[in-house]
Amino acid sequence: MKKVKIQLMLGIAFTALFCVFTATVKTVDVKAIGPAGTAVGFARLNEFAFDLFGENLVFYYITDWLGVAAVAIAFGFAAFGLYLAIKKKSVFKADKDMLLLGAYYVVIVAVYVLFEKAVINYRPVLINGFLEASYPSSHTMITVCICSSAVMQFKARVKNEKLKFAAVFAVSMLAVFTVAGRLISGVHWFTDIVGGLFISTGLTALYGAGAGYINLRKTADSKSDGEN
Question: Which of 37, 159, 186, 190 makes a 20 to 30 Å CA pair with 89?
Answer without folding.
Answer: 159
